[in-house]
């Protein structure tokens, strides 16, 4: 949302978290998606990685270590790069996020409550609310999301920034995995289309 329901810097709000969507996809560990990612140009690889985390330094680091032998190695590199973000890198990444959204089928009262909570959060902390909700079924996400915002509103700015950095790391991991799956499914996509990677779930 910057969690469940993901993107590139300032792409359309995709619930701020390109969700992990296993939906019938085979294990991408050694599949064509990873091979296509390894074969992208440096520019195209950085472009798709910016949809996973909005830090240019993060995207450059992950792209520069290609080729990856398997998805586990790619995820480990993404994790390491996330832990190594400077404060400026983190600010850049958080600025690219959009606050988590609920499915449009959610109750109207929940949508209104979430809008109000997001506005209050962003006024206090100056960036979108980032959370990874992988593992929570859709019917639980409204309660999980609203509860998390309310808890985290009580944090000091520095504490919340640290928590947001950790959630952003988890979100980036999920988006990287999504990227390999998307590349597997979109075998006929051009380099330009790959550069616009932004699955909606």
UniProtKB/TrEMBL annotation:
Family annotation (Pfam families): OHCU_decarbox
PANTHER family referenced in this protein's UniProt entry, alphabetically: 2-OXO-4-HYDROXY-4-CARBOXY-5-UREIDOIMIDAZOLINE DECARBOXYLASE-RELATED
Region listing for Disordered, in residue ranges: 1-28
InterPro entries associated with the record: OHCU_decarboxylase, OHCU_decarboxylase_sf
EC number: 4.1.1.97
Pathway info: Purine metabolism; urate degradation; (S)-allantoin from urate: step 3/3
EC category: lyase
Chemical reaction(s) catalysed: 5-hydroxy-2-oxo-4-ureido-2,5-dihydro-1H-imidazole-5-carboxylate + H(+) = (S)-allantoin + CO2
Taxonomy, superkingdom: Bacteria
Name of the protein this chain belongs to: 2-oxo-4-hydroxy-4-carboxy-5-ureidoimidazoline decarboxylase
Domain Oxo-4-hydroxy-4-carboxy-5-ureidoimidazoline decarboxylase residue range list: 38-96, 108-176
UniProt keyword terms in alphabetical order: Decarboxylase, Lyase, Purine metabolism
